[in-house]
Amino acid sequence: MTELCEYGWAKSFHFSRFYKGEAFAASLARHEHYLAAQMSLRRGMCVLDVGCGVGGPAREIARFSDVKIVGLNNNEFQLGRAHRYTKAAGLEDQIQFVKGDFMKLSEQFGENVFDAGAPSPMPSHMIHGIEYVNFCPYTVYVIEATVHAPTWEGVYGEILKVLKPGGVVSSALWHPTERQCLPLYQLGVYEWCMTDRWDPSIPDHKSLAHEIELGSGIPEMRPLSKARDALKTVGFHIEHEEDLAERPDAVPWYYPLEGDIFKAQTTWDYFTVWRMSWSGQLVTHNALRLLEFLRVVPKGTWEVGEKLRIAGDALVKGGQTKVGRPPRSLNIFLTECITHYAAFYANVPGHRAEALGPRA
Fold it and tell me: Does pLDDT of 347 surpass 70?
């Protein structure tokens, strides 16, 4: 599935908003930059990427914000590709990938391990081979990964455990003349969920969610309200939430999945969109059948491709009918159809915070 997703989409496994004339790759990068800006990521910070895939967002955010990142994934195959791509990008000293279960973060990292003490030099410590000084601020982000968790309360609770509550860091770390205080530990999430307009008692709604689950390997598509409640239940304070899909964009988030080459934003995007068209899918699926017959690809690859096609069609239908939605973040809620792309921004209670200026 990983290689099919890279071929059919990109090395960043997420959706994004589009400006008129914006290239597909640029849109994905901007979406990642937006989350980093919302979280005020900057040089000196140490960030945990929960569910990092093959590291596309981690590499982009590392370049954009000059932070150090630990990427967590339970898939050995994806981790191997993440290591290879990151080394090729020359970022292996800035990003490290580790295998782990995001439902057992505290077992792997220990509780309160992402700590930041007083703004004065303290002994350094190692986290999976990367050296960090204890006063560096830590933060966590998730991009469309925790939708695969059996429960949101479980994964959000584990994230909270590895973030030590009550810490405060002076902005003097970055602005020597200022003494405002920022939240030391925070969580930014682009969450994939159904909008609150989704009604599982309606057969069409229920069927649409099932098709997305089937094609995307998701245990259960849940409504936005459950994501919000889960964050509050485990102890996070939501600073900002927004449905990005509600913004009046001329180009919808799902347009690449429609397979209409006449909607391609740039010349290179013609190929990206074509792969989703009926002819592109025909070529891909027949090629997979042949490669599977010749044993070039593992048995079952064609079936995986079919499931991905089902999910893509369901996402387009949800977007067009305004009932579904793609993922967004813990600070931003995307709502356009049934699936909801929620963008949340949360911090640990007990932090004192003063804004340093408007958010990006």
Answer: no
pLDDT in tens, 20-46: 999 999 999 999 999 898 888 888 888
Burial of 133 (0-12, 13-18, 19+ CB in 10 A): middle
More confident position, 255 or 170: 255
User: For residues 119, 121, 125 and 131, what is the CA-based torsion angle, rounded to 10 degrees?
Assistant: 100
Cβ atoms 206, 200 nearer than 8 A: yes
Residue 202 lies in a domain: no
Query: How far is residue 185's CA from residue 247's CA, in Å, rounded to a whole number?
Result: 29
Beta bridge partners of 47: 69, 139
* Residue 328 pLDDT: 39
First to last CA, the chain: 34
Task: Say which CATH number the domain at 120 has.
Answer: 3.40.50.150
Characterize the bridge pairing of strands 237-243 and 339-347: antiparallel
Domains of the chain: total: 1
pLDDT > 50? residue 177: no
Q: Which domain holds residue 115?
A: 11-196+218-251+324-347
Q: Are 337 and 321 in contact (CB under 8 A)?
A: yes
Cα distances (Å, whole numbers) of residue 28 to 15, 80, 192, 211, 303: 7, 22, 16, 24, 27
23 touches 269 (CB < 8 A): yes
Per-residue pLDDT reduced to its tens digit, 291-324: 888 888 888 887 888 888 888 888 888 777 655 5
Residue 334 DSSP symbol: E
In a domain, 274, yes or no: no
For 35, 60, 243, 247, 327, the CA distances from 31, given in Å and listed in that order, are 7, 10, 13, 14, 12
- Check residue 321 and report its DSSP letter: T
User: Is residue 297 in a domain?
Assistant: no
| Cβ atoms within 10 Å of 160's Cβ, excluding its own | 23
In a domain, 109, yes or no: yes
